[in-house]
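step: validate -> pass
step: tokenize input -> pass
step: predict -> running
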Amino acid sequence: MHEHRTFVELMRTRADEHGDRTALMFSPDPLRAETDETLAYGELDRAARRVAALLQERFAVGDRLLVLHPSGPGFARSLLGCMYAGMVPVPAPPPDGPQRKQAGRLAAIARDAGAVGALAEGTDLEALASWAKEQELRGMTVLAPDSADELPAASRWRPPPADPHALAFLQYTSGSTAAPKGVMVDHANLLANAEILAAIAGMSADRPVGGWLPLYHDFGLIGLLLTPLVLGGRSVLMPPMAFLKRPHTWLRLIDRHGIDFSPAPNFAYDLCLQRITDEELARLDLSRWRCAVNGAEPVQAATVEAFTRRFAAAGLRPEAMLPGYGMAETTLVVCGDRPARRAVVSEVDAAAFERGELLPPATGAAVHRIVSSGPAEYLDVRIIDADAGRVLPDGRVGEIWVRGPNVARGYWGRPEETRRVFDAVTPDGESGFLRTGDLGILHEGELYVTGRSKELIIVRGRNLYPQDLEAATREAHPALAGGVGAAFSVPVPEEEVVVVREYRARPAEPEELARAVASVRDRLSREVGVPAHNVVLVPPGTVSRTTSGKIQRRLVRRRFLGGELEILHAELSPAVRARLDDAAGGDAS
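step: predict -> pass
step: emit ->
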């Protein structure tokens, strides 16, 4: 990999050396082999050069172009076409159909990036033109390369300068805690990240990669599409919606194609546990699935153990479940568990953990279980208490800071934030660190990620993590199972915990709603020891999530305080209800 300065140079070599080898396979319906579409390295290279030649006729090197195709061959051809043209692709979900709610976010991305064009499917051109007009994006050129009457010949393509520090793409953050920001990933970052990910997971050209993750998200874009291409391997892709509608199709894809590496967020493994029937499980062979990577959101010990236990019947090996940790700001990866060992789940003293210390539990003391995201061995990882100005020793919770070759260049158009976040200096004077905004612990070489610093809930001196409160209440009542929850705090003036949970039963009978609230309160009191004065039940789909499935707790909190949530039933403390009444002019419910 090191002899190539850019991803484009590397792809040209792949096309020359093994142009007939399958690069991509797209399976619109994993249950029907006859629907599969394949692209060889030579075909993908020629398509990318033709798209690039078209773009070079219309745009300038360095221009930013939205890539709005759904996951599939069209996305790959347009993304690589932008890179081959020396332009900067900006992957994003299209604003139409089920993603219509993304229209405003997409317009914000287009403005932030200064995008001058958008590439999409021909069937989406009309909707995109309407979107651009509605959002007053004047001068936005919308193209459908796959539907172009006459793409230029591949020979018309002009190679861009082979600069390893030229931007490969802009990856917009998911916006779980703030407005989306464009992470500047250059070619050197991309190639370094592929090398690190391959080393962690033992990936190679002869081990297929595949899955359903959206290609506009970093986990899908880099984990499923670009890294296999860097390695010269094969990637098997399916539509994200196919998985969400029928989760067993993901595991069927893995079985049918002998997929070795397939990643997903924690919620996807939960969804498989909830929705895959015993009959569907009986028809699966997962014995070749070596890397079932769990990342993109906090990994839950209960999910890892339940998935391992249930799918052992299909041949899944216990050591296949691999927790990992990364983010767009590190191109993708920080660390991950080794494929040859079982996930490390540590039992620690719950009270000490809430004080920010990792200690073995005292006899008879309450226990908290945390999952290691793997050894911190490929990037330089430090745990910092920035407020106190010190590097923390092993076993103490602080902000995770990282340094390495795959740490991106910064945020597009935000020089001050880039300096603050990407060029942090440790209290002992070492520079060039990325402040992740995540909290974690280093212990015996393992990195344990505990949550987002902006979402930490502090109640009477206790540090509580929202995902722990959400996990504790998920099974409190049958109508809450499978639904999403969000926990946060409200100062009134003391911090009080609020838990919002989706209620899935229809009709929503008042007596049953009250029982569900009582069950949530009981769980929080018994399992976490939290006074649960504020429980809010909402319809399915109300709790906002990012495109990667992360819960947008701060957005849910803002909507709750603004009286914007559709509430089925709420039991609130007098102080929180008074705050809502004040905000709504006495009309809060």
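step: describe -> The chain has 18 helices and 27 strands.
step: cleanup -> pass
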